Amino acid sequence: MIYSYIKPRKKSPFTPDVQLIVSFFSIAIIMLLSTYAFLLYKDYSFVQERKKLVQNRVELSKNIDVMDEKIAYIKKQEALSQKVFTQNMVLKDSIANLFDLVPERITLSRAELLKNGLILYGVTPNRDVYNFMLQAPLRSIFQKTYTSFYEADNGWLKFVSTNYINEDEGEELNSEN
Amino acid sequence: MKINISRQQIYILLLSFFLLLFVVIFSFTLLIPEGKEYRIKRMELKKELREYNKYKTFHDDTLKTLKDLQSKDINIITAFDRPFSPDRFEKQHKTHFSSLTIAKLKRAKDIDGFSVYEVNTTSHISSPTNFYDFLDALNKGDWIIGVNFPIKFVRDGEMIKSSFTMKVYANNKDKNSTASASLAK
Fold first, then answer.
1. Is B74 part of the contact surface with chain A (CB cutoff 8 Å)?
2. Which of A60, A79, A133, B89: disulfide with A103, CB 3.0–4.6 Å?
């Protein structure tokens, strides 16, 4: 038995209005969630990147310290070598000056260069030659000069000249070198 | 006036309200704080990057200084590293002497953190000029050597017998092993 002449239409809870609202909110929620996921990912990557940078910075800092140490050490080596080289050159000049100091008429048999003095052994024709030609320049350099003479077989005089500079000045000279 | 709202419309309104509520709560409790966090972390990263770049620049400058120093002073650095060899020394400097005798190396007191060895030397020279040449050559030699007092010159026939002490300076292996090793790299 039929109560109606029209066929009943199917009823669904998803009416066009509901579909519109659901699709609108779905898009909105997807966008919000994706933004949130993006922010979470970026935060994580920032933290990781920062950690890496800090680690690299610490590494760089350590390297800088090591390099600074090496630079300081090389500078120390350079300073010491220059000091040694200068001392050698000063020594060369001192020896050259010593040999230039000795006049032709006086013959040296032995010379001892000490840290703070000079001892000369040699022969001189007479005291005057020694006094004027060797002792005078020696006195201008050294504060203490002692000389003793012995007679040689050929009538000349053997001499031993001991010359010292004051300890303070010697130290000053050494420290300058 | 009577407002006629169907049950269907009430459902739609309720659904819309709850969805909107979810969006608002989600935004204010999670999204906005996370956004703030994002900005803070981005600023921190930028700050850290600036700091890192500063260190990097300083590191590069220091490295350049070190490399320049190493290349400029390569002879001095290797001289400090090289162990003293009496045979090699004799071979290098025998041209300045008629005869050269080198005694055994003795360890002396360290100076400025460097090892110092003393070596007594006796030689014969024909003229003081030979000794000057020797001192010049010493400064260009394979080791850092300083001629030390006392220096004795004794007439020996036509020759001059000279005896002197040399100080050989070298790296203190105990203290500076890292510096030497790093140079080798």
1. no
2. A133
Taking CB atoms and an 8 Å limit, are B34 and A32 in contact across chains? no
For A144-166, the pLDDT digits (tens) are 889 999 888 888 899 999 999 87
3-state secondary structure of A152: coil
Contact flag A108-B155 (C-beta cutoff 8 Å): yes
Neighbours of A176 (CB within 10 A): 8
Is the CB of B45 inside 8 Å of chain A's CB atoms?
yes
- If asked whether residues A89 and A138 sit together in one domain, one would say no
The two tokens of residue B45 are: 């990263």
CB contact under 8 Å between A18 and B112, yes or no, is no
CB pairs under 8 A between A and B: 177
Taking the model in full, what pTM does it have?
0.78
Position A10 confidence tier, pLDDT thresholds 50, 70, 90: confident
A contact test, residue of B43, B77, B81 with most A CBs within 10 A? B77
| Domains identified in chain A, total number | 2
Residue A37 lies in a domain: yes
Q: How far apart are the CA of A1 and the nearest CA of chain B, in angstroms?
A: 31
Spatial separation of the C-alpha atoms in residues A3 and B110, rounded to whole Å? 122
CB B28 within 8 A of CB A33: no
Q: What is the ipTM of this complex?
A: 0.81
Residue A77 forms contact with B (CB below 8 Å): yes
We report the CATH number of the domain holding residue A153 as 3.30.1360
Any domain includes A6:
no
Closest CA to A170 of A119, A114, A120, A102: A114
- A5 domain-assigned: no
